[in-house]
Amino acid sequence: MLKNFLKIAFRNLLRHKFFSLANIISFSIGLASLTLVSLYVFDEFSFDTFQAKSKQTYRLATIYNKDSTLLEYALTPYPLAQNLQKDYPELIENYFRLFNFQNPSILIEYKKEHFNEKNFFITDSAIFDVFDFEFISGKSNFNNIKTTVISESIKKKYFGHFNAVGKELLIDGVPVKVIGVFKDLQENSHVKLDILVSFATLEYMIGYVPDSWLWNSCWTYIVLKPEKTQIGMESKFPEFVQNHYDKLIKDNSLLFLQPIQEIHLNSSLEYEIKPNNKKLYLFILLGIAGFLLLVSMINFLNLRTTDSLTRIKESGIRKVLGSNKPQLLTQFIIESMILSFAALIIAFFIVEAFLPVLNHLTDKHLTFKLIFNNHIFTFILLVVIFTGVIVGINAGLFASSCSAVHAIRFKKGFLHKKWLSGRILILTQYTFALILLIMVLVNFKQLHYLKNTDLGFEVRNTVILPVSNTPIAEEYPDFKSFLLASNRVENVTALDNIIGNRIYHRRYFYRKNNKKRVEFFPLLTVRHDFLKTFNIKLLAGSDFSKGHTEKIETAKNELIINETLSKLIGFESVEDAINQPLTTYRGQERIIGVIKDFNTRSLHKPVSPLIIRTVANRDNIIEFTKYVAVKFKKVAKNDLKYLLMIWKKFAPDHPFEYSALNSILDRQYQNEDILNYFLWLFSALLIIISSIGIWALTSFFSIQRTKEIGIRKAIGAMEHDILILFTKDFLSTIIIANIIAWPIAYFVLKRWLTVFAYRTNIDLWIFVLATIFMLFLTFSIIWFYALKTASSNPIDALRDE
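Above: the chain's sequence. Below: its structure in C-alpha cell form.
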C-alpha cells in the first residue's frame, strides 16, 4: 500500500513540476533563514557558558553616582578582590584580576621582529583555577617573575612547530620566558586571552602595581562558593565600600555583580574589554526569521491548496472506485511530506553555502555541525514534519470536501469559503512583509544617521596611527615636522585615546555654590593643534600655548573644557569659565578655553562633560602619546606610502598600522550593521516568498471565477474590467494589512530606537513608501495573471460545467 502511495505521490509531484518547485523553494528559504539565524543567536547566547564554573563566576563593576554625574565602569580598584575575600571568606571561593593599562595592544619582539598583540593581560595565577585552561606544554606557575604563558595560536605565530617552553619573548622591551602553552580558549567569550603575565612580573617591568583605591584599573572576577547567591554577596557591598574606599568617593560609589554568562548580551559599561551585543537585536533577528518561516509555511499551504484544485476530479473518481477519506488524506500527506523533506535538504545546502558569508559578516567561525549540537536540528525537523502533515491534511480535505458527483463535474461554487481562508493567510503574509519592509527602511535611515551625523569634529580624510610603545612617542615633534613637510598633509596632532570612541575618566575638584566638590570627568590628553586638526569650534578663551618647536617643556597646566562641563560646574556663560581653577592630583590647573560640545563616544550615549589637557611633563610622553592623527587634504594611495616612508624612518623595527578615523567610528555600530544586513536579506527573501504566495492566490482566484470571467467577456467586458475584478478582491486585503502593520511596526521601532541617545525620526513617508512598493509588487503579479486570463477564449471557460 505504502509503495503504491509513494509511486502515485511522485507521479503527481512530477506532473505539477512548477507547483512542486515553488513549494520547495519557498519553504527551503524559510527553513534556511531560521537555521542560519538560530546558529548565530545560539552562539551569542552561549558566551562564557563553556567554563565549568561559569554559573559561580561574576565580574565586579562600579557605579559612581554624584549630582548629575552617573558613571558605570566595568573596572574596579586593584585591592578590591583580595580585601573582599579577606572580609567574606565564607562567600568567596576564589578571585582573579585582569589588567592591561587599558592599552589596545602591547609590543612583542622575537628575533628582531616586532608585533602589536591585542590580547595581552596581567593577571593572577588563580585564573587557571577559575577558567578551564588546557595546557599543551609547560605549566602555569606564576610564582617566578619574568615568565609568561601563551595561547597555541601565539605559539604557532612566533615559534611555528618548535617547542616554545623556555624560549624568550621581549614584552614591552623586557625579556620574559615562556613557561607554558595553553590551547586556545573558545571564541564565544567576552574576553580573549592570548598572552598572560603575573602582577609580580608587572611590578618588575614598571616598578609598581596599580594598587590605588582611587584608580579603577582592573577587571575583577570572583567565584562564589556553591550555594551562595549574587544577592547575598551584593548585600555586603555597602558596608565594604564604607570600610575600604577612599573618603572622597565612598559615599558615591556602589558595587554590583555581573554573571559572566550575561556580560556579552547585557553589559554596555564604560571600559568593556570588547564591544558587546544587545539581546534586543537577537530577539528581533529571531522574530524576523520566525516570521519568514511562517510566511513560507503559509505559502506552502496556499500553493498546495491551489494545486489540489486540479485534483478534485481525481478525488471524485477515487471515491467512486472505493477510496475512503483517510486514504485520500494519506495520499496528500505523503506528497506534502516528500515536498517538506525535499525543502529541508535544499535548506541545508543553502545553509552550508551561506555559512562563510555569515561568518565573514559576524566575525565568527560557525560550522554546519553546530546545527546538531544546539537542538536546532530537532526543532527544524519538527517544523518540517508538522508543516508536511498540516498542509497535507488541509489539501486532502479541500480536494475531498465535495461529493463524488460534484467532484467529477468540478463545480466551482463551493470554493468561495476556501478563497476566504486563503485571503486570511495572504493577509497575514502581507502584514509581515509590510512590517519588515518598514523596519528595514527605518533601520537604514538610523544607521545612515549614526554614520553621517555631525559629531562636532571633522572625521573625513583623517588617518589614525597607533604609536604607543614606539620611538615616535618620544620623537613626536620631529615626526610631526616630517609629516607636515608634505603639502598633502593639513595638520597633525596626537592624543591618548581615539576621539569619538572611548575616553578615560579622572578625578577633579571644583567649587560650586561655595561648596567643594569632587567628580570624575572624561579626560582627553592631546598634543598641540588638536582643535585645529579636528576643526573643533572654540567658544571662548584660547587654544593651548605652543613653543616654536612644540617642545614638551612648553606645556603648562592648562585645560580646555566643553560647554556641557561649563554648565555642570555652574558657570552662567562660557566666558565666565575662563581662568577658573580645577584641581587634580597634579595640583591646580586653569581653564583657558571652552569648546563646542562634540561626541566623545558612540551615539548610543549622549554628550558627556569633557576636559582636554596637554602632556605636562616628559614622564607623560609615552603614557599619553598613544595615537597620531594625520589630517590630509584628501587621502590617496600615495599618501599612505608617504606615511609608511616616514614611519620607517622613525620606527623601522615596529609594525606599521593605520586606520581611517571614519572606519574606526563605524565599527562602533557593528551590531547595527549586522542587523541591517539581515533585515535587507530577509526583506528580499520575504518579497520573493510573498510574490509566490500572491501568485498562488491569484491562480486560486482565477480558477474559482473562470466561468464568471467567461460570461463577463461574452457579454462585452473589456480587459480593464477584468483587471478591476481581480484588483477589487485584493484591495481590501491590502488595506486591512496596512491598518494592522503600521501600528505594530511603529511600536517595535519606537522601542528599538530607545537604545540610542541620538535617533532619527520615524517619518510617515517611510510607511507610505513601503506600502507603495508592496502595492506595486502585488498589482504587477495580479495584473499579469489577470491579463493572461482576460486574453483567453471565453468559449473555453463556458464549455465546462
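The chain has 26 helices and 25 strands.
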